[in-house]
Amino acid sequence: MTVNGTEYVREVEPRLLLIHFLRDELRLTGSHWGCDTSNCGVCVVWLDETPVKSCTVLAAMADGHRVMTVEGLSRGQRLDPVQQGFAACHGLQCGFCTPGMMLTARWLLNRNPHPTAAEIREAISGQVCRCTGYENIVRSVLWASEAERAQSEGAQSEGAQ
Amino acid sequence: MQVPAHCEYERAASVEHAIRLLTRYGPEARILAGGHSLIPMMKLRLAQPEVLIDINGLTDLCYITVADRELRIGALARHAHLLDSQVAGQYFAILHDAERVIADPIVRNWGTIGGSLCQADPSEDLSAAFAAVKGTMVIAGPDGIRTVSAREFHTGPYETQVGPAELLTEIRLPVRPGGGSAYLKVARRAGDWPVGAAGAAVWLDGEMIIDVGIGLTAVGAAHFAAAEAEEYLIGEAATAERLARAGQIAAEHCRPVGDQRGPADYKRHLAGELTARALTLAVRRAGGLADRAGSPAA
Predict the structure, then answer these.
(1) A122 at the B interface (CB within 8 A)?
(2) Is A57 on the interface with B (CB under 8 A)?
(3) Shared domain check, A104 and A34
(4) One pLDDT digit (tens) per residue for chain B, 298 residues
């Protein structure tokens, strides 16, 4: 499978879960392993174009597919606007839910660049945060949405000149 | 740490190949679609298949389309596809109502329609929705395909008509004029299984109910349906009083069991109230009831 742009070939037991493959085989420990019952969402990674809960996907099912973890979110040293938003708005305290929250937020903004607070809450409704009461997570995603709007308007006005 | 027990893994290259694999490995093999019911059950040893047959590569089973006056849903379509499908929502608002309250957006990205139906959990929402709209299931096997009505599909909790060497491939819903539908669910929190839920589909000629389907979830209704309440409504005018009475009949005939989600009498109350409300919304969406305060068909 291709993970964050790098191709990996491994022989695995059929029962190996994707989350354990990423963490234990590839040592990509940004994705967390939480409830193990697809409720908490700390294990969210992208499988091709969509976020999934990787504690409920076998590693074998991702064979031939593209996986993106939180380690693949930044462009080199440049953080994704979602990551910048979480830093700017204090969108995390303990950080356990943060990788999954940011990957879902990136997906939401790709589909819906200007979501309302309610739409953000709906998008992360399958993910649990025990620190922030979600308020700062919502602010962080709104911050990223605004930053991207400003960036694209800036690029447009530059183009017009 | 929860991990599934050791098992073998095969990847199906086509429906025919999946059926050959099922035939070869026998009843201890299980089809793996989204896995969002099967993998948690394997972790708990409630399911312990010897072989998993992964059908996620069968992308030709991943479609939602209208053909021959039927909405056709491929068994491998994900919940998110159904919720995003404009054509599904246009003809059957009940499907979007139900999908909005199934699990959460991330689970819906990977869980499949066919997998949900074959899991046959008594609390699963789509079974009642398809019972309400009187769908047909298409099942492929070694001798070709056969069809089974949505109401005959489930033979009991966690049991369906799909045999050990068979595969559900498609769900077909007849598109008929004058239709409206709705699904309402009460759950303890976002993304949870229902305490109780009801779906309704009506087909009107003016104010007259030509046909009606009522689906009930998690309240012990036979075949996920409320046949007595449907009988009471067919051929009658869709009045508020009559729809309310149909709710009472549905409540009288279901057999809820008390559990951690609520006592039996509360679930019975929900069955009646949600049936009446779903019927009312369905009738309004079909253009019935003088008061047009409800949402338009969408």
Answers:
(1) yes
(2) yes
(3) no
(4) 889 999 999 999 999 999 999 999 999 999 999 999 999 999 999 999 999 999 999 999 999 999 999 999 999 999 999 999 999 999 999 999 999 999 999 999 999 999 999 999 999 999 999 999 999 999 999 999 999 999 999 999 999 999 999 999 999 999 999 999 999 999 998 889 999 999 999 999 999 999 999 999 999 999 999 999 999 999 999 999 999 999 999 999 999 999 999 999 999 999 999 999 999 999 999 998 865 444 444 4
Contact B80 A37 (CB under 8 A): no
Backbone angle region of A27, left / alpha / beta, with phi > 0 → left and psi within -120 to 50 → alpha:
left
Tokens representing residue A48 in the block: 């091709």
- Looking at the structure of chain B, the number of domains it has is 3
Supply the pTM of this predicted model: 0.94
Q: Is B258 exposed, middle or buried (0-12, 13-18, 19+ CB in 10 A)?
A: exposed
> B106–A57: do the CB atoms touch at under 8 Å?
no
CB burial of residue A132 (10 Å; 0-12, 13-18, 19+)? buried
Q: Tell me the CATH number at A120.
A: 1.10.150.120
Q: How many CB pairs under 8 A join A and B?
A: 81
A15 interfaces chain B, CB cutoff of 8 Å: yes
Last residue of a domain, one of A54, A72, A90: A72
Nearest CB among A13, A20, A125 relative to B104 is that of A125
Buried b (16+ CB within 10 A) or exposed e, B113-141: bbbbbbbbbbbbbbbbbbbbbbbbbbbbb
For chain A, what is the domain count?
Answer: 2
By C-alpha distance, the chain A residue nearest B111 is A52
Amino acid at A122: E
Cβ of B54 within 8 Å of Cβ of A61? The answer is: yes
Range of the domain at B73: 59-174
Min Cα distance A161 → chain B (Å) is 39
In a domain, residue B99? The reply is: yes
Whole domain around residue A92: which residue ranges?
81-160
CATH of the domain at A22: 3.10.20.30
